[in-house]
Amino acid sequence: LHHGLEIIFTDETAAPSVPHRFVHERGIAEWLPALVAGRGKPPIPPSGAVFYLEKKDDDAKLGLELALQWTEASDDLIKSHVNSVPTPDGGTHDAGLRAAIVKAVRNYISTHSLDPKGVTLTAEDIREGVVAVLSTFVHDPQFQSQTKNRLNNPEVAGQVEAMVRPALENYLNSNPNWAQAVVARTVIAARAREASRAAKEGINRK
Fold it and tell me: Residues 6 or more apart from 19 whose CB is under 8 A from it?
């Protein structure tokens, strides 16, 4: 979570003592491909391009780092953190990211007249296959419980969305091959969902 942080542990029980160096220069941008590889589903596009964002708001009360990639997985995986604490149950920062992803892709599709015929894209279609690591730094975090599994600050959702949406939309516009692969992936997800629904309805009628 902290790119460039270097920790050196020296094992003095060995003779001679053995130093171990722990450092990840690229932080979450380095962690994300490992998460994708661990799920066993290839990235989209196959080049494995990663969207990375590091940003702070004007009054320094909120900062975030984000690494994001679409894959061929049938579900999404978002690992979120607040002030280096994992939040497995998500919260408002997670909600802001999810909204930003959907709005950025929808805006790109609308701007470039890529709306598919015969199918309606849902938020779940757009987020299907997303793998992301979100690390937020909140000045006064309010958690749901002492275990800090979920962030409750209502203002954070809008702040995260306002940081991520324009940056992701700009990345889509600047990387058309990447963007078109994401849109194609989304349309496939929507058509698969519609086909599954139609098949289920057919079985119910029978």
Answer: 8, 9, 10, 11
- List the beta bridge partners of residue 92: none
Q: Which two tokens stand for residue 34?
A: 């490992």
For the entire predicted model, the pTM comes to 0.90
pLDDT tens figures, 15-64: 899 999 999 999 999 999 999 999 999 999 888 789 999 999 877 689 99
Q: Name the CA dihedral angle for 53, 165, 136, 87, rounded to a multiple of 10 degrees.
A: -120
Predicted confidence (pLDDT) per residue in 94-127, tens digit: 999 999 999 999 999 999 999 999 899 999 999 9
Listing DSSP states for 36-58 in one string gives HHHHT--EESTT---EEEEEE-T
Rounded-to-10 torsion of CA 168, 160, 56, 105: 10
Question: How is residue 47 written in tokens?
Answer: 């080049």
